[in-house]
Amino acid sequence: MDSKEIRKRFLDFFERKQHEIVPSAPLVIHNDPTLMFTNAGMNQFKDYFLGNSDPSSKRIADTQKCLRVSGKHNDLEEVGLDTYHHTMFEMLGNWSFGDYFKKEAIQWAWELLTVEFGLPKDRLYASVFGGDEEDNMPLDQEALDLWKDIMPEERIVFGNKKDNFWEMGDTGPCGPCSEIHIDLRSDAEVAKIPGKDLVNNDHPQVVEIWNLVFMQFNRLANGSLQKLPAQHVDTGMGFERLAMAIQKKTSNYDTDVFTPLINFTADKAKVQYGQDEKTDIALRVISDHIRAIAFTIADGQLPSNNKAGYVIRRILRRAVRYGYTFLNFKEPFLYELLPVLAQQFDGVFPELVSQQDFVAKVIREEESSFLRTLDKGLTKLEVIKNQVENTTKVIDGKVAFELYDTYGFPFDLTSLIARENGLSVDEAAFKEEMQVQKNRSKQDAATSKGDWIEVKAIDEVVFLGYDAVKSTAQISKYREV
Ligand code: ATP
Ligand code: MG
Ligand code: MG
Ligand code: MG
Protein backbone atom coordinates (compact mmCIF):
# COMPACT_ATOMS: atom_id res chain seq x y z
CA MET A 1 0.00 0.00 0.00
CA ASP A 2 1.59 3.29 -0.98
CA SER A 3 1.69 6.24 1.36
CA LYS A 4 -0.97 8.23 -0.50
CA GLU A 5 -3.36 5.34 -0.03
CA ILE A 6 -2.45 5.08 3.67
CA ARG A 7 -3.18 8.75 4.31
CA LYS A 8 -6.44 8.51 2.39
CA ARG A 9 -7.56 5.40 4.26
CA PHE A 10 -6.88 7.05 7.60
CA LEU A 11 -9.03 10.03 6.69
CA ASP A 12 -11.77 7.91 5.09
CA PHE A 13 -11.90 5.70 8.18
CA PHE A 14 -12.59 8.65 10.47
CA GLU A 15 -14.95 10.22 7.99
CA ARG A 16 -17.00 7.03 8.22
CA LYS A 17 -17.00 7.56 11.99
CA GLN A 18 -18.65 10.97 11.41
CA HIS A 19 -15.51 13.10 11.64
CA GLU A 20 -15.21 16.32 9.69
CA ILE A 21 -11.97 16.26 7.68
CA VAL A 22 -10.17 19.60 7.90
CA PRO A 23 -7.00 20.91 6.20
CA SER A 24 -3.63 21.08 7.92
CA ALA A 25 -2.84 24.39 9.60
CA PRO A 26 0.29 26.17 8.29
CA LEU A 27 3.64 25.11 9.74
CA VAL A 28 4.47 28.67 10.70
CA ILE A 29 2.55 30.18 13.60
CA HIS A 30 2.18 33.95 13.70
CA ASN A 31 -0.15 34.70 16.56
CA ASP A 32 1.16 32.61 19.44
CA PRO A 33 4.11 33.96 21.41
CA THR A 34 4.72 30.54 22.97
CA LEU A 35 5.20 28.64 19.71
CA MET A 36 7.06 29.36 16.45
CA PHE A 37 6.07 26.30 14.44
CA THR A 38 3.22 23.84 14.59
CA ASN A 39 4.61 20.83 16.46
CA ALA A 40 1.47 18.75 17.00
CA GLY A 41 -1.94 18.24 15.46
CA MET A 42 -3.71 19.83 18.40
CA ASN A 43 -2.03 23.25 18.09
CA GLN A 44 -4.68 24.63 15.78
CA PHE A 45 -7.42 23.45 18.14
CA LYS A 46 -5.93 24.87 21.33
CA ASP A 47 -8.72 27.40 21.78
CA TYR A 48 -11.37 24.69 21.65
CA PHE A 49 -9.78 22.92 24.60
CA LEU A 50 -9.41 26.16 26.51
CA GLY A 51 -13.07 26.94 25.87
CA ASN A 52 -12.22 30.19 24.03
CA SER A 53 -14.09 29.18 20.88
CA ASP A 54 -16.24 26.37 19.51
CA PRO A 55 -15.24 23.83 16.86
CA SER A 56 -17.20 23.54 13.62
CA SER A 57 -17.79 19.91 14.50
CA LYS A 58 -17.43 17.79 17.65
CA ARG A 59 -15.43 15.23 15.69
CA ILE A 60 -12.51 16.28 13.52
CA ALA A 61 -9.68 14.44 11.73
CA ASP A 62 -6.79 15.61 9.58
CA THR A 63 -3.15 15.26 8.64
CA GLN A 64 -1.10 18.05 10.15
CA LYS A 65 2.31 19.23 8.94
CA CYS A 66 4.54 19.41 12.02
CA LEU A 67 8.03 20.72 12.66
CA ARG A 68 10.05 19.73 15.73
CA VAL A 69 13.20 21.78 15.63
CA SER A 70 12.90 24.20 18.53
CA GLY A 71 11.50 24.58 22.03
CA LYS A 72 10.09 21.68 24.03
CA HIS A 73 10.11 19.31 21.06
CA ASN A 74 13.45 19.51 19.31
CA ASP A 75 14.40 16.38 17.36
CA LEU A 76 16.94 18.01 15.04
CA GLU A 77 19.98 16.26 16.51
CA GLU A 78 18.36 12.85 16.03
CA VAL A 79 17.50 13.36 12.39
CA GLY A 80 19.50 11.29 9.95
CA LEU A 81 21.28 9.45 12.75
CA ASP A 82 18.15 7.57 13.70
CA THR A 83 15.56 6.30 11.27
CA TYR A 84 12.28 7.52 12.77
CA HIS A 85 12.60 11.15 13.94
CA HIS A 86 12.16 13.87 11.34
CA THR A 87 12.27 17.61 11.43
CA MET A 88 9.08 17.89 9.38
CA PHE A 89 6.55 15.10 9.55
CA GLU A 90 2.85 14.57 9.17
CA MET A 91 0.79 13.86 12.24
CA LEU A 92 -2.47 12.08 11.51
CA GLY A 93 -5.05 12.87 14.15
CA ASN A 94 -8.62 12.45 15.27
CA TRP A 95 -10.34 14.62 17.86
CA SER A 96 -13.38 14.58 20.03
CA PHE A 97 -14.41 17.89 21.54
CA GLY A 98 -16.70 16.93 24.38
CA ASP A 99 -18.04 13.99 22.39
CA TYR A 100 -16.70 10.39 22.46
CA PHE A 101 -14.01 9.44 24.95
CA LYS A 102 -11.58 6.62 25.82
CA LYS A 103 -13.70 3.67 24.75
CA GLU A 104 -14.22 4.76 21.15
CA ALA A 105 -10.76 6.29 20.80
CA ILE A 106 -9.05 3.05 21.83
CA GLN A 107 -11.38 0.74 19.92
CA TRP A 108 -11.14 2.73 16.71
CA ALA A 109 -7.37 3.01 16.92
CA TRP A 110 -7.19 -0.76 17.27
CA GLU A 111 -9.67 -1.37 14.48
CA LEU A 112 -7.82 0.96 12.10
CA LEU A 113 -4.40 -0.55 12.77
CA THR A 114 -5.32 -4.21 12.82
CA VAL A 115 -8.36 -4.53 10.54
CA GLU A 116 -8.05 -1.69 8.01
CA PHE A 117 -4.25 -1.77 7.84
CA GLY A 118 -3.76 -5.39 8.88
CA LEU A 119 -0.85 -4.81 11.26
CA PRO A 120 0.06 -7.93 13.28
CA LYS A 121 -1.75 -7.82 16.64
CA ASP A 122 0.97 -9.65 18.54
CA ARG A 123 3.50 -6.95 17.62
CA LEU A 124 1.49 -4.07 19.04
CA TYR A 125 1.90 -2.74 22.58
CA ALA A 126 -0.17 -0.24 24.52
CA SER A 127 1.13 2.01 27.24
CA VAL A 128 -1.11 3.31 30.01
CA PHE A 129 -0.48 6.05 32.56
CA GLY A 130 0.64 4.24 35.70
CA GLY A 131 -0.14 7.12 38.10
CA ASP A 132 2.17 9.25 40.20
CA GLU A 133 1.89 8.97 43.96
CA GLU A 134 4.04 11.96 44.77
CA ASP A 135 1.88 14.20 42.65
CA ASN A 136 -1.34 12.53 43.69
CA MET A 137 -2.20 11.49 40.15
CA PRO A 138 -4.25 8.31 39.66
CA LEU A 139 -3.49 5.30 37.45
CA ASP A 140 -5.62 5.36 34.29
CA GLN A 141 -7.75 2.36 35.28
CA GLU A 142 -10.34 3.01 32.58
CA ALA A 143 -7.79 2.85 29.75
CA LEU A 144 -6.15 -0.18 31.35
CA ASP A 145 -9.48 -2.05 31.44
CA LEU A 146 -10.23 -1.14 27.84
CA TRP A 147 -6.85 -2.40 26.66
CA LYS A 148 -7.24 -5.59 28.70
CA ASP A 149 -10.33 -6.38 26.62
CA ILE A 150 -8.23 -6.01 23.50
CA MET A 151 -4.82 -7.52 24.24
CA PRO A 152 -3.16 -9.80 26.80
CA GLU A 153 -1.71 -8.03 29.83
CA GLU A 154 1.85 -8.90 28.88
CA ARG A 155 1.63 -6.42 26.03
CA ILE A 156 0.43 -3.52 28.19
CA VAL A 157 3.10 -1.33 29.76
CA PHE A 158 2.81 1.38 32.38
CA GLY A 159 4.27 4.77 31.67
CA ASN A 160 5.31 7.72 33.80
CA LYS A 161 4.30 11.37 33.72
CA LYS A 162 6.87 12.19 31.04
CA ASP A 163 5.59 9.69 28.48
CA ASN A 164 1.97 9.18 29.52
CA PHE A 165 0.55 12.38 30.90
CA TRP A 166 -0.08 15.36 28.67
CA GLU A 167 -0.30 18.95 29.87
CA MET A 168 -0.76 22.06 27.78
CA GLY A 169 1.19 24.17 30.26
CA ASP A 170 1.60 24.66 34.02
CA THR A 171 -2.14 25.09 34.30
CA GLY A 172 -5.08 24.20 32.06
CA PRO A 173 -6.50 21.12 30.33
CA CYS A 174 -4.50 17.92 30.76
CA GLY A 175 -4.89 14.20 31.09
CA PRO A 176 -3.39 10.75 30.78
CA CYS A 177 -2.47 9.26 27.45
CA SER A 178 -2.18 5.80 25.99
CA GLU A 179 0.42 5.20 23.33
CA ILE A 180 0.59 2.43 20.79
CA HIS A 181 4.02 1.02 19.98
CA ILE A 182 5.03 -1.52 17.36
CA ASP A 183 7.80 -4.09 17.33
CA LEU A 184 9.25 -4.45 13.82
CA ARG A 185 12.14 -6.79 14.68
CA SER A 186 12.59 -10.27 13.26
CA ASP A 187 11.08 -13.28 15.05
CA ALA A 188 14.58 -14.37 16.10
CA GLU A 189 15.24 -11.01 17.75
CA VAL A 190 11.85 -11.00 19.44
CA ALA A 191 12.59 -14.43 20.90
CA LYS A 192 15.72 -13.02 22.56
CA ILE A 193 14.23 -9.94 24.23
CA PRO A 194 10.48 -9.34 24.62
CA GLY A 195 9.30 -6.21 22.83
CA LYS A 196 7.69 -4.99 26.03
CA ASP A 197 11.15 -4.40 27.53
CA LEU A 198 12.10 -2.15 24.61
CA VAL A 199 9.06 0.11 24.54
CA ASN A 200 10.12 3.76 25.07
CA ASN A 201 13.77 2.72 25.09
CA ASP A 202 14.94 4.38 21.87
CA HIS A 203 15.10 1.07 20.03
CA PRO A 204 14.95 1.90 16.28
CA GLN A 205 12.60 -0.97 15.54
CA VAL A 206 10.36 -0.81 18.58
CA VAL A 207 8.76 2.55 18.01
CA GLU A 208 5.86 4.61 19.16
CA ILE A 209 3.34 5.13 16.42
CA TRP A 210 0.23 6.66 17.99
CA ASN A 211 -0.49 8.77 21.02
CA LEU A 212 -4.05 8.94 22.34
CA VAL A 213 -4.52 11.78 24.82
CA PHE A 214 -7.55 11.87 27.07
CA MET A 215 -8.21 15.34 28.38
CA GLN A 216 -10.21 14.94 31.53
CA PHE A 217 -8.60 17.28 34.08
CA ASN A 218 -7.93 20.94 34.55
CA ARG A 219 -4.69 21.68 36.39
CA LEU A 220 -5.26 24.57 38.80
CA ALA A 221 -2.65 27.11 39.88
CA ASN A 222 -2.27 25.33 43.25
CA GLY A 223 -1.26 22.18 41.34
CA SER A 224 -4.38 20.16 42.01
CA LEU A 225 -6.39 18.36 39.32
CA GLN A 226 -10.03 19.20 38.81
CA LYS A 227 -12.39 17.20 36.63
CA LEU A 228 -13.17 18.98 33.34
CA PRO A 229 -16.87 19.55 32.66
CA ALA A 230 -16.45 18.13 29.13
CA GLN A 231 -13.92 15.48 28.17
CA HIS A 232 -11.89 15.55 24.99
CA VAL A 233 -9.78 13.21 22.86
CA ASP A 234 -6.64 14.37 21.03
CA THR A 235 -4.67 11.81 19.07
CA GLY A 236 -1.52 12.00 16.96
CA MET A 237 0.03 9.31 14.79
CA GLY A 238 3.31 9.66 12.90
CA PHE A 239 2.38 9.15 9.25
CA GLU A 240 5.89 8.16 8.12
CA ARG A 241 6.19 5.64 10.99
CA LEU A 242 2.81 4.18 10.14
CA ALA A 243 3.95 3.82 6.52
CA MET A 244 7.09 2.03 7.73
CA ALA A 245 4.98 -0.47 9.69
CA ILE A 246 2.47 -1.08 6.89
CA GLN A 247 5.11 -1.33 4.18
CA LYS A 248 7.04 -3.80 6.36
CA LYS A 249 10.20 -1.69 6.50
CA THR A 250 12.51 -1.03 9.42
CA SER A 251 13.31 2.60 8.61
CA ASN A 252 11.04 5.49 7.65
CA TYR A 253 13.55 6.28 4.92
CA ASP A 254 12.80 2.96 3.22
CA THR A 255 9.15 3.89 2.66
CA ASP A 256 7.88 5.58 -0.48
CA VAL A 257 7.64 8.83 1.51
CA PHE A 258 11.42 9.11 1.30
CA THR A 259 12.76 6.78 -1.39
CA PRO A 260 12.06 9.15 -4.33
CA LEU A 261 14.07 11.88 -2.56
CA ILE A 262 16.88 9.56 -1.53
CA ASN A 263 17.12 7.96 -4.96
CA PHE A 264 17.19 11.29 -6.76
CA THR A 265 19.94 12.61 -4.48
CA ALA A 266 21.94 9.37 -4.59
CA ASP A 267 21.78 9.29 -8.40
CA LYS A 268 22.94 12.85 -8.61
CA ALA A 269 25.85 12.14 -6.25
CA LYS A 270 26.59 8.86 -8.06
CA VAL A 271 26.44 6.87 -4.84
CA GLN A 272 24.20 4.10 -3.60
CA TYR A 273 22.10 4.27 -0.47
CA GLY A 274 22.99 1.52 2.00
CA GLN A 275 26.67 1.20 1.13
CA ASP A 276 28.39 3.61 3.47
CA GLU A 277 27.26 4.96 6.85
CA LYS A 278 28.40 8.55 6.33
CA THR A 279 26.88 8.84 2.87
CA ASP A 280 23.68 7.27 4.17
CA ILE A 281 23.38 9.80 6.98
CA ALA A 282 23.88 12.63 4.50
CA LEU A 283 21.19 11.21 2.19
CA ARG A 284 18.77 10.86 5.09
CA VAL A 285 19.47 14.35 6.40
CA ILE A 286 19.00 15.93 2.96
CA SER A 287 15.78 14.09 2.21
CA ASP A 288 14.49 15.09 5.63
CA HIS A 289 15.61 18.73 5.63
CA ILE A 290 14.36 19.57 2.14
CA ARG A 291 10.84 18.80 3.35
CA ALA A 292 11.16 21.11 6.36
CA ILE A 293 12.67 23.88 4.25
CA ALA A 294 10.24 23.63 1.34
CA PHE A 295 7.08 23.41 3.42
CA THR A 296 8.04 26.28 5.69
CA ILE A 297 8.83 28.55 2.77
CA ALA A 298 5.58 27.52 1.08
CA ASP A 299 3.79 28.46 4.30
CA GLY A 300 5.21 31.95 4.24
CA GLN A 301 8.48 31.87 6.14
CA LEU A 302 11.50 32.98 4.15
CA PRO A 303 14.96 32.14 5.46
CA SER A 304 16.39 35.14 7.32
CA ASN A 305 18.68 36.13 10.13
CA ASN A 306 16.32 35.95 13.05
CA LYS A 307 13.56 33.99 14.73
CA ALA A 308 11.68 31.46 12.59
CA GLY A 309 13.55 32.58 9.47
CA TYR A 310 16.87 31.74 11.07
CA VAL A 311 15.66 28.31 12.11
CA ILE A 312 15.00 27.59 8.44
CA ARG A 313 18.29 29.07 7.33
CA ARG A 314 20.10 26.88 9.89
CA ILE A 315 18.37 23.74 8.64
CA LEU A 316 19.13 24.67 5.05
CA ARG A 317 22.82 25.32 5.76
CA ARG A 318 23.01 22.07 7.68
CA ALA A 319 21.70 20.23 4.61
CA VAL A 320 24.03 22.08 2.24
CA ARG A 321 27.05 21.17 4.32
CA TYR A 322 26.06 17.48 4.49
CA GLY A 323 25.84 17.47 0.70
CA TYR A 324 29.09 19.39 0.27
CA THR A 325 31.18 17.26 2.61
CA PHE A 326 29.77 13.79 2.11
CA LEU A 327 28.26 13.82 -1.39
CA ASN A 328 30.63 16.19 -3.10
CA PHE A 329 27.93 18.69 -4.10
CA LYS A 330 29.83 21.90 -4.77
CA GLU A 331 26.94 23.64 -6.54
CA PRO A 332 23.36 24.26 -5.37
CA PHE A 333 21.47 20.96 -5.38
CA LEU A 334 18.65 21.07 -2.82
CA TYR A 335 16.37 23.13 -5.04
CA GLU A 336 16.42 20.36 -7.65
CA LEU A 337 14.42 18.19 -5.27
CA LEU A 338 11.39 20.47 -5.50
CA PRO A 339 9.75 18.74 -8.48
CA VAL A 340 10.17 15.37 -6.74
CA LEU A 341 8.54 16.71 -3.58
CA ALA A 342 5.79 18.53 -5.42
CA GLN A 343 4.86 15.37 -7.27
CA GLN A 344 4.63 13.43 -4.01
CA PHE A 345 2.30 15.94 -2.42
CA ASP A 346 0.18 16.66 -5.44
CA GLY A 347 -3.44 16.57 -4.28
CA VAL A 348 -2.41 16.54 -0.61
CA PHE A 349 -0.74 19.88 0.13
CA PRO A 350 -1.56 22.13 -2.83
CA GLU A 351 0.39 25.06 -1.35
CA LEU A 352 3.63 23.30 -2.20
CA VAL A 353 2.62 22.35 -5.71
CA SER A 354 1.32 25.78 -6.67
CA GLN A 355 4.43 27.57 -5.41
CA GLN A 356 7.11 25.07 -6.32
CA ASP A 357 9.02 27.31 -8.74
CA PHE A 358 9.17 30.19 -6.32
CA VAL A 359 10.19 27.95 -3.41
CA ALA A 360 12.92 26.37 -5.56
CA LYS A 361 14.21 29.81 -6.47
CA VAL A 362 14.44 30.94 -2.85
CA ILE A 363 16.25 27.74 -1.89
CA ARG A 364 18.66 28.02 -4.80
CA GLU A 365 19.62 31.56 -3.85
CA GLU A 366 20.15 30.56 -0.24
CA GLU A 367 22.33 27.68 -1.30
CA SER A 368 24.45 29.81 -3.63
CA SER A 369 24.97 32.41 -0.98
CA PHE A 370 26.14 29.88 1.64
CA LEU A 371 28.29 27.96 -0.84
CA ARG A 372 30.27 31.13 -1.44
CA THR A 373 31.72 31.01 2.08
CA LEU A 374 31.32 27.37 3.10
CA ASP A 375 34.63 26.19 1.73
CA LYS A 376 36.65 28.92 3.42
CA GLY A 377 34.86 28.30 6.70
CA LEU A 378 35.55 24.57 6.51
CA THR A 379 39.22 25.21 5.78
CA LYS A 380 39.39 27.51 8.79
CA LEU A 381 37.75 24.84 10.95
CA GLU A 382 40.22 22.24 9.71
CA VAL A 383 43.16 24.39 10.80
CA ILE A 384 41.65 24.91 14.26
CA LYS A 385 40.84 21.22 14.52
CA ASN A 386 44.48 20.34 13.96
CA GLN A 387 45.50 22.82 16.61
CA VAL A 388 43.20 21.59 19.37
CA GLU A 389 42.69 17.91 18.70
CA ASN A 390 45.72 16.91 20.70
CA THR A 391 45.31 19.55 23.40
CA THR A 392 42.06 21.01 24.79
CA LYS A 393 39.73 19.44 22.22
CA VAL A 394 37.65 22.62 22.58
CA ILE A 395 37.07 25.13 19.79
CA ASP A 396 37.34 28.69 21.07
CA GLY A 397 34.12 30.74 21.18
CA LYS A 398 35.85 33.51 19.25
CA VAL A 399 36.53 31.14 16.35
CA ALA A 400 32.93 29.92 16.40
CA PHE A 401 31.84 33.55 16.31
CA GLU A 402 34.09 34.36 13.38
CA LEU A 403 32.70 31.34 11.55
CA TYR A 404 29.22 32.65 12.27
CA ASP A 405 29.88 36.26 11.44
CA THR A 406 32.19 35.98 8.46
CA TYR A 407 31.38 32.59 6.96
CA GLY A 408 27.70 32.24 7.85
CA PHE A 409 28.11 29.11 9.99
CA PRO A 410 25.22 28.84 12.45
CA PHE A 411 26.53 27.87 15.90
CA ASP A 412 24.89 24.45 15.80
CA LEU A 413 26.63 23.68 12.50
CA THR A 414 30.06 24.42 13.97
CA SER A 415 29.13 22.32 16.95
CA LEU A 416 27.98 19.45 14.74
CA ILE A 417 31.24 19.46 12.78
CA ALA A 418 33.17 19.66 16.05
CA ARG A 419 31.28 16.65 17.39
CA GLU A 420 32.00 14.65 14.25
CA ASN A 421 35.68 15.23 15.00
CA GLY A 422 35.50 14.39 18.70
CA LEU A 423 35.70 18.06 19.72
CA SER A 424 33.38 20.55 21.40
CA VAL A 425 32.83 24.31 21.18
CA ASP A 426 32.97 26.86 24.00
CA GLU A 427 29.36 28.03 23.77
CA ALA A 428 29.53 30.53 26.64
CA ALA A 429 32.40 32.36 24.96
CA PHE A 430 30.53 32.34 21.66
CA LYS A 431 27.51 33.94 23.33
CA GLU A 432 29.73 36.59 24.90
CA GLU A 433 31.13 37.50 21.49
CA MET A 434 27.61 37.64 20.14
CA GLN A 435 26.59 40.02 22.92
CA VAL A 436 29.57 42.27 22.26
CA GLN A 437 28.52 42.51 18.62
CA LYS A 438 24.90 43.24 19.55
CA ASN A 439 25.99 46.05 21.87
CA ARG A 440 28.21 47.43 19.14
CA SER A 441 25.42 47.47 16.57
CA LYS A 442 23.04 49.05 19.09
CA GLN A 443 25.52 51.89 19.50
CA ASP A 444 25.90 52.21 15.75
CA ALA A 445 22.15 52.33 15.37
CA ALA A 446 21.88 55.02 18.04
CA THR A 447 24.43 57.26 16.36
CA SER A 448 22.90 56.93 12.94
CA LYS A 449 19.37 57.74 14.12
CA GLY A 450 17.64 60.15 11.82
CA ASP A 451 19.62 59.09 8.79
CA TRP A 452 17.58 56.00 8.13
CA ILE A 453 13.98 55.15 7.66
CA GLU A 454 13.20 52.03 9.60
CA VAL A 455 12.25 49.15 7.36
CA LYS A 456 10.29 46.27 8.83
CA ALA A 457 12.17 42.99 8.74
CA ILE A 458 10.61 40.37 6.50
CA ASP A 459 9.76 38.30 9.62
CA GLU A 460 7.43 40.98 10.82
CA VAL A 461 5.54 41.17 7.56
CA VAL A 462 2.22 39.42 7.76
CA PHE A 463 2.17 36.69 5.16
CA LEU A 464 -0.60 37.08 2.63
CA GLY A 465 0.70 34.63 0.03
CA TYR A 466 3.69 35.18 -2.19
CA ASP A 467 1.61 36.56 -5.00
CA ALA A 468 0.96 39.58 -2.82
CA VAL A 469 4.60 40.30 -2.14
CA LYS A 470 6.47 38.60 -4.93
CA SER A 471 7.24 41.70 -6.91
CA THR A 472 7.67 44.09 -4.03
CA ALA A 473 10.77 45.43 -2.36
CA GLN A 474 10.42 42.89 0.43
CA ILE A 475 11.63 40.07 -1.74
CA SER A 476 14.54 42.07 -3.12
CA LYS A 477 15.37 43.06 0.44
CA TYR A 478 15.42 39.37 1.31
CA ARG A 479 17.90 38.75 -1.50
CA GLU A 480 20.35 41.15 0.05
CA VAL A 481 20.42 39.39 3.44
P1 ATP B 1 9.02 9.94 20.44
O1 ATP B 1 8.91 9.41 21.85
O2 ATP B 1 9.26 8.87 19.43
O3 ATP B 1 9.98 11.08 20.34
P2 ATP B 1 6.80 11.61 21.03
O4 ATP B 1 6.26 10.91 22.23
O5 ATP B 1 7.67 12.78 21.26
O6 ATP B 1 7.57 10.54 20.07
P3 ATP B 1 4.18 12.65 20.43
O7 ATP B 1 4.39 14.02 20.90
O8 ATP B 1 3.42 11.72 21.28
O9 ATP B 1 5.60 12.01 20.05
O10 ATP B 1 3.57 12.74 18.94
C1 ATP B 1 2.62 11.83 18.40
C2 ATP B 1 3.22 10.93 17.33
O11 ATP B 1 3.95 11.67 16.35
C3 ATP B 1 4.23 9.94 17.87
O12 ATP B 1 3.59 8.81 18.39
C4 ATP B 1 5.07 9.60 16.63
O13 ATP B 1 4.46 8.59 15.86
C5 ATP B 1 5.04 10.89 15.84
N1 ATP B 1 6.30 11.65 15.99
C6 ATP B 1 6.70 12.37 17.05
N2 ATP B 1 7.87 13.00 16.82
C7 ATP B 1 8.21 12.68 15.55
C8 ATP B 1 9.30 13.04 14.71
N3 ATP B 1 10.26 13.86 15.11
N4 ATP B 1 9.33 12.52 13.46
C9 ATP B 1 8.36 11.69 13.02
N5 ATP B 1 7.30 11.32 13.76
C10 ATP B 1 7.21 11.81 15.01
MG1 MG C 1 9.72 13.03 21.04
MG1 MG D 1 7.26 9.25 23.21
MG1 MG E 1 4.24 10.33 22.61
Automatic annotation (TrEMBL):
Residues 1-481 form the Alanyl-transfer RNA synthetases family profile domain. It comes from Reichenbachiella agarivorans. Catalyzes the attachment of alanine to tRNA(Ala) in a two-step reaction: alanine is first activated by ATP to form Ala-AMP and then transferred to the acceptor end of tRNA(Ala). Also edits incorrectly charged Ser-tRNA(Ala) and Gly-tRNA(Ala) via its editing domain. Binds 1 zinc ion per subunit. Its main location: cytoplasm. It is found in: Cytoplasm. Keywords: Aminoacyl-tRNA synthetase, ATP-binding, Coiled coil, Cytoplasm, Ligase, Metal-binding, Nucleotide-binding, Protein biosynthesis, RNA-binding, tRNA-binding, Zinc. The keyword Transferase does not apply. Consists of three domains; the N-terminal catalytic domain, the editing domain and the C-terminal C-Ala domain. The editing domain removes incorrectly charged amino acids, while the C-Ala domain, along with tRNA(Ala), serves as a bridge to cooperatively bring together the editing and aminoacylation centers thus stimulating deacylation of misacylated tRNAs. GO terms for molecular function: alanine-tRNA ligase activity. This is Alanine--tRNA ligase. Its EC number is 6.1.1.7. It catalyses: tRNA(Ala) + L-alanine + ATP = L-alanyl-tRNA(Ala) + AMP + diphosphate. It comes from the Bacteria. Its cofactor is Zn(2+). Belongs to the class-II aminoacyl-tRNA synthetase family.
